[in-house]
């Protein structure tokens, strides 16, 4: 298979295992490119990409921008906090204005779940969902699974525990879909108040004891405590959260095997994980960041090649 089954990347839910493998193989190629002295390829010289961020996200935005520039695409950046969206302009108005500039692809982060799907039905451009509310964040899940594949050789058969705030996390849901499609076993671990009710319908087990979860897993993905999303308190104090669900070096070293530690970033050092864990040799947090650019290059390149076929 040399092309994706979809014209947009709206969520992991909508793509196949074959799509994921194709994205990984393409990312392998781009990883070589990124490590060359000249890091650019002229692949997308005639493609214009608009980055629409209706919510702050420095890291994801930088990663996408870097991926787009490495592919030599033309890039338009649009951050809503500083734009007319705050004056009550609707998503459709904004997008129509941007599309009148002849944009081929839109990378969008939006606080409303399903914003990307809505957009894909109304505009004639390829849409990449860079996070929609607490729903999906597909490129993060792809780079996470890709990083596991790189470290452990394969994702199939691996045991992955996702620890922390599952309820507010778009990373968790996309990760569950991606890992399951690739044949991994997934558990979630966190305070009961932060585990969504629907989780067991997704064939995911809940483990409330961190040590048990860590003894079971090959990989622990430690999610950030998202204080900004919690309008009410889901656990008494951050200190108490850390005591029960924080990962420190003492726990890591006391496990009966060596596990891989991941974190989607940005890290609250000393909350979800301590600095000595984040910087340890078992951590692949920096690899995740580097892989993020390669994965985003792969997704953009594969979607753009579908646009080109369209035009030919």
Automatic annotation (TrEMBL):
What sequence ranges are listed for the domain Aspartate/ornithine carbamoyltransferase Asp/Orn-binding? Answer: 157-302
**Keyword flag Transferase:** yes
For this protein, the Enzyme Commission number is 2.1.3.2
Q: Which domain of life is it from?
A: Bacteria
Domain spans labelled Aspartate/ornithine carbamoyltransferase carbamoyl-P binding: 8-150
Q: Which residues bind carbamoyl phosphate?
A: 59-60, 109, 137, 140, 265-266
Please provide, alphabetically and separated by semicolons, the GO molecular function terms listed in this UniProt record.
amino acid binding; aspartate carbamoyltransferase activity
- InterPro entries of this UniProt entry? Asp/Orn_carbamoyltranf_P-bd, Asp/Orn_carbamoylTrfase, Asp/Orn_carbamoylTrfase_sf, Asp_carbamoyltransf, Asp_carbamoyltransf_Asp/Orn-bd
Q: Where does L-aspartate bind?
A: 87, 170, 224
Q: Carries keyword Oxidoreductase?
A: no
GO BP, one annotated term: 'de novo' UMP biosynthetic process
Annotated catalysed reactions: carbamoyl phosphate + L-aspartate = N-carbamoyl-L-aspartate + phosphate + H(+)
SUPFAM superfamilies, alphabetically? Aspartate/ornithine carbamoyltransferase (SSF53671)
Complex and partners: Heterododecamer (2C3:3R2) of six catalytic PyrB chains organized as two trimers (C3), and six regulatory PyrI chains organized as three dimers (R2).
The entry's family comment says: Belongs to the aspartate/ornithine carbamoyltransferase superfamily. ATCase family.
Q: Would you tell me the protein name for this molecule?
A: Aspartate carbamoyltransferase
Which organism encodes this protein? Aequorivita antarctica
């Amino acid at each position: 298979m040399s092309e994706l089954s979809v014209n947009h990347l709206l969520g992991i839910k909508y793509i196949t295992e074959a799509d994921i493998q194709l994205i990984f193989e393409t990312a392998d190629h781009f990883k070589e490119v990124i490590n060359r002295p000249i890091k650019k390829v002229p692949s997308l010289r005639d493609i214009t990409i608009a980055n629409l961020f209706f919510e702050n996200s420095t890291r994801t935005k930088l990663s996408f921008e870097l991926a787009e520039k490495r592919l030599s695409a033309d890039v338009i950046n649009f951050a809503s906090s500083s734009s007319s969206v705050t004056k009550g302009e609707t998503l459709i108005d904004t997008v129509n204005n941007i599309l009148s500039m002849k944009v081929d692809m839109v990378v969008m982060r939006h606080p409303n779940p399903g914003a990307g799907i809505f957009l894909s039905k109304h505009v004639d451009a390829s849409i990449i969902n860079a996070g929609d509310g607490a729903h999906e964040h597909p490129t993060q899940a792809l780079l996470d699974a890709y990083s596991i594949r790189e470290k452990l050789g394969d994702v199939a058969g691996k045991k992955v525990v996702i620890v922390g705030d599952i309820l507010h996390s778009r990373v968790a849901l996309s990760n569950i879909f991606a890992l399951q499609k690739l044949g991994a076993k997934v558990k979630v671990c966190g305070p009961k108040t932060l585990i969504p009710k629907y989780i067991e319908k997704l064939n995911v087990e809940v483990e409330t004891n961190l040590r048990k979860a860590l003894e079971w897993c090959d990989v622990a993905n430690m999610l950030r405590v998202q204080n900004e999303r919690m309008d009410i308190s889901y656990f008494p104090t951050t200190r108490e959260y850390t005591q029960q669900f924080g990962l420190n070096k003492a726990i890591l070293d006391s496990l009966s095997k060596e596990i891989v530690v991941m974190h989607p970033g940005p890290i609250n050092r000393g909350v979800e994980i301590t600095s000595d864990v984040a910087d340890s040799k078992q951590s692949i947090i920096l690899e995740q960041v580097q892989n993020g650019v390669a994965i985003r290059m792969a997704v953009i390149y594969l979607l753009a090649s579908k646009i080109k076929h369209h035009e030919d």
